[in-house]
Amino acid sequence: MSRKLFFIAASIFFALSLEIFGAGTTVLRATRLQTRFAGLAAPIFLTHAGDGSKRIFIVERAGIIKVVQPGSNVPTEFLNITGLTNITGERGLLGLAFHPQYETNRRFFVYYTLTDGDLRISEFEASQANPNVALTTEKPLLTIEHSANNNHNGGTIGFGPDGYLYAAPGDGGSGNDPPNNAQNINVLLGKVLRIDVNVPSGYAIPPTNPFAGATPGADEIYAVGMRNPFRWSFDRENGQLWAADVGQGSWEEVDIITNGGNYGWRIFEGNTCTNLGPDPCTPANYVAPVFVYSSQNTTSRCSITGGYVYRGTQGTLPDGSYIYGDYCTGEILLWHGGQQLPLHDITDFNLVSFGEDEDGELYVVHAGNGIIQKIVPAKANTDFDGDFRTDLSVYRGNDITWYIINSNSGTVRSQVLGFPNAPIAPEDYDGDRRTDLGHFNPGTGISFYIRSSDSTLRTANWGQLGDVPMPGDYDSDGLADFMMYRPSNGTWYLLRSSDGGITNAQWGEVGDLPISGDFDGDGKYDLSVWRPSNGNWYTVFSSNNAIQVNQYGEPNDLPATGDFDNDGRNDLALFRPSTGQWFQKLSSNNSFAVTGWGESGDVPIVGDYDADGRDDIAVWRPSTGTWFIIRSTGGILQVAGWGIPGDVPAPSRDAP
């Protein structure tokens, strides 16, 4: 033990990036937009069923709902009601909500415009025989007259934590709400509605609705004074209802909706008096927005697209932050701690909606170009300096030293750490999106690493002689876990970072090679092995425990997986030293690619060397210490003399 501490203390150089922020300042880490689904016809919403299946459901405005299985990017048709609606103006199939007990009762609800423009909420059921297909029998629940104009329909329905179904129709359209619908408590337009669908037929009125029973006003109303709350959502942690209300032309606003609240339209637009009447602009009579932003003619912003309070498991965004955007500019914005902060500014699409999956991770729906992207952390394997590029790095066992070229500055770093012949296990154990130096000492069964965030040493008595360290994020908390693969019995041993729990799973046999990677795109590493004897890949998807077997490769190939097509899923890939060829099967479209790159004796070192989110083909040549890289966007990179025979290139042990 004293020897280990000596080597740790004998640090020659250790680079830290320190960020100091004032009180109340939100710290944002970089994210990427990763295309998950393409070729859709006017997608308008994405959601999940909440049934544990991890399926994704996509709404297309023309009247089709599609379902996507975990690990797939190919949607199939779930429900088709194209004959009931049309897409004139802002009309169409706009919203979808699954009953909280959908897993057992198969009930779900849609919000759409009829061909005459009226708004309708209807109930459907999924087939008991095939859960990926819905029955076509419609049970209409509520129809709202809206034939005069084709805009301001609202669009979201959803179940609150109270088990009731909520909807939010717009004010009836045109401009400035000529009939003053939003303030008229006897009509349902320009309101947030709440109904109870847990009755034998139709719906009932929740007794705590503000105008329920003998109280004057429409029974279904929950809150009033809305213009066009097209996208809204519940905070899955505290149940608050966050609604983005599209402005008339000057101010976009976000409100937290409460029972009986009056949010001001058409008296106020945001915090500004409209002078439209009929009531006076008395702020005390109305609930003020949480925040507003300008959409006046002096800006290119035009219409707020509401999103979600982020409660995802992967730490992609600050917990509790509200994510939203602007339809016209394509900006994706974040509100947290009283600040509006930019996340992305994409100018080539109309941002029509956000979506949330079962894990609370968020998606962006592009109306015009038919794609849906996931907001994911920006990171790369063996990225020690936090610039989202894989760094050239080797570990030299005979002097127990790491040698790293920082890609962000070109500076050289060396770090003494480890034991002679101790396997390296670099990964991001502290969740700061920089790779930490890590090792496994088979003599003592101790795994250890130095956190890049604070330079502290962490250890765990985890593993035994002969184990292969396979660290990665297996529990989707944004931190790498200690994982060991035991070749003698084909068993994986996991020590979870999220709760300190232990999981053991037998997956593999003697002679198999363990593989690190997320093959189903759920943000968790999967158990996977490649069997040289038959060229088969055997993978258990973490999302649904489905087993996938792929025959790809031959004896003496070297598995070298990575996400080469930037779809969030690892692709099957092998390097064949005998011919210097790479063989790839891309998960996005199941296409095959063969690339000549390398020669016998080279070591595959897949990584994202150009920070574009796609992994690159690369090899390291021990005889010369030369790195040969085909960057997916930056061309060929060749770096000579970084490493000597006997070194271990770090990217070969920290797979993407």
Number of strands: 49
The average pLDDT value, as a whole number, equals: 93
Instruction: Tell me, briefly, the overall form.
Output: elongated
Strand order of the largest sheet: 1-26-25-24
Low-confidence stretches: 1-23
**Percentage of residues in DSSP E strands:** 35-45%
Oligomer: single chain
Main sheet properties: 4 strands, antiparallel
Structural class: mainly beta
**Helical segment count:** 2
Rounded Rg: 28 Å
N- to C-terminal distance: 32 Å
Helical amount among residues, as a percent range? under 10%
Can you walk me through this structure?
There is one protein chain. With 656 residues, the chain is mostly beta strands. The longest helix has 8 residues, at 2-9.
Name the descriptors.
about 650 residues, mainly beta, four-stranded antiparallel β-sheet, 2 helices, about 0% helix
SSE blueprint:
Layout: H1 2-9, E1 31-37, E2 43-47, E3 56-60, E4 64-68, E5 76-80, E6 93-98, H2 102-105, E7 107-113, E8 119-125, E9 139-144, E10 157-159, E11 165-167, E12 191-195, E13 221-224, E14 231-234, E15 241-245, E16 251-257, E17 268-269, E18 272-273, E19 291-294, E20 304-309, E21 322-326, E22 331-336, E23 339-345, E24 351-356, E25 362-366, E26 372-377, E27 392-396, E28 401-405, E29 412-416, E30 437-441, E31 446-450, E32 457-461, E33 468-469, E34 482-486, E35 491-495, E36 502-506, E37 513-515, E38 527-531, E39 536-540, E40 547-551, E41 558-559, E42 572-576, E43 581-585, E44 592-596, E45 603-604, E46 617-621, E47 626-631, E48 635-639, E49 648-649
Antiparallel strand pairs: 1-26, 2-3, 3-4, 4-5, 6-7, 7-8, 8-9, 10-11, 11-12, 12-13, 14-15, 15-16, 16-19, 17-18, 20-21, 21-22, 22-23, 24-25, 25-26, 27-28, 27-49, 28-29, 30-31, 31-32, 33-34, 34-35, 35-36, 37-38, 38-39, 39-40, 41-42, 42-43, 43-44, 45-46, 46-47, 47-48
